[in-house]
Structure formats: structure tokens, C-alpha cells
Amino acid sequence: MSNTMVAETSLRPETIARETPKMDLLTAIRGRRAVRAYTNQTVDRRTIERLLDAAVEAPSAMGLEPWAFVVLEGRDRLRRFSDDVKDGLRRGEGESSPHLREMLADPSFNIFYGAPALVIVCATSRQTQAAEDCCLAAQNFMLAAHAEGLATCPIGLSRVWLNQPATKLRLGIPGEYVPVFPVILGHPAERPASHGRLAPAVLWR
Ligand SMILES: Cc1cc2nc3c(=O)[nH]c(=O)nc-3n(C[C@H](O)[C@H](O)[C@H](O)COP(=O)(O)O)c2cc1C
User: Fold this and answer.
1) Which residue's CA is minimally distant from atom 7 of ligand 1?
2) Range of the domain at 177
3) Which of 146, 155, 184 to mutate to test the pocket of ligand 1 (most atoms within 8 A of CB)?
4) Is 193 domain-assigned?
5) Is the beta carbon of 146 within 6 A of some atom in ligand 1?
6) In terms of Cα–Cα distance, which of 162, 152, 157 is closest to 184?
7) Does residue 164 belong to any structural domain of this protein?
8) Is the pLDDT assigned to residue 56 strictly greater than 80?
């Protein structure tokens, strides 16, 4: 496993203050929403490190912790990347639907919604349950961000583009990393209400 990003991110759980957010867990779970409008305010690296500190508390199959985090900062930079992702999607790389095609046709549609940062949870091994571990880390990250008054939204639309060798080369993402869960982070400019949830099938056997 490459340590490239680990060295760069300087996650230091022992030195990062474990500030306890003033929000109980169920309030955070019920209040988190996918936010698609952001203010111009950036999020400092120390805050991002604190959120990553919460991310890596996620359960991990066999305790392997097969994750790494690539952080892309800069609203304008992300806007340019959005155009590249949209070009790829228009060429048929990745998912498609009439609704998505309509969105892609809109030049003002930014798949990163003007957020100042994109955090990409990457699997660092092809071990069978690495992706599950990364998704659990991403959920911790999103809940911790919400508890701090920040906002997030998973951006699955960017995943195919992020996994292309040319993109990884351009962004300095090690070839063996597999971008699994990209999530934008920023200060919310909207407070969306929950769409609610369907009652799930629960089979008591
Ligand atoms: C794996 C995954 C990928 C997603 N990809 C996108 C995306 O590319 N763009 C987007 O706007 N929202 C994306 N979302 C957000 C969902 O649309 C959102 O979570 C869902 O509508 C429920 O809304 P809520 O998170 O506010 O409860 C994604 C969510 C997940 C879990």
C-alpha cells in the first residue's frame, strides 16, 4: 500500500483536538441533508482534518482501514473539473438518464454546486470489502460535518471521471487508489428539508 497521501494529509489524531460537537447523534442523522448550494466561505484544513479524524473511526473489515482521502480545494478549480466530468458524461462515460442529459445540457450546471472542497474517499486496496469501509468512513465524515454546521453532498457523478487513469495522473492520485466516494464540503447556503423516507421492508423471520 502506498503511503503517499497518508504522508501528505498529516492526520494526527493525537494532536487534533477531539472537539465534541454539540449535537446528539440522532439529531445529526436526522438533520443531515445533501446540500447543493454553498456560500463563498472556505473550510480550513484543520477542520477538514478533524472531520477525517471522525471518518476513520468507522468500522473496517478485519481492521484493515483500506482508505485514503484526497482533498481537492478551490471552487473555481472544481468548476473547471465539473466541465470535464460533464464532457465525459455527454460522451457516454458513466450513467445516463433523460433527466441527467437535461442537466448536462445546462451550461450553468456545476456538478460540485460551487462547494470549496471535494473530499474523495479512496480504497487503497482491492480487498473485497474495501469499498464498504470507505462508504462507512464517508458517512462518518458527512455526519461530523453536519454536526459542525457544515454541509456535504455525495457526488457519485464524478466517480467515473475520478477513476480514469488520465484524471488520477493529473490530480496526483496514486494509480492503486480507487476513488469510491467523492463528497463535497462547504458552508451551506440552503437548508433543504428532508424528502422523508419510505418505510423499508423489514422481514422478521
Ligand atoms: C452514492 C451516492 C451518490 C450520490 N451522487 C450524487 C450526485 O452525483 N449528485 C447529487 O446532487 N447528489 C448525489 N447524491 C445525493 C442523493 O441524491 C441524496 O442523498 C438523496 O437524494 C437523499 O437526500 P438527502 O441526502 O438530503 O437525504 C448521492 C448520494 C449517494 C448515496
Assistant:
1) 155
2) 4-9+24-186
3) 155
4) no
5) no
6) 152
7) yes
8) yes
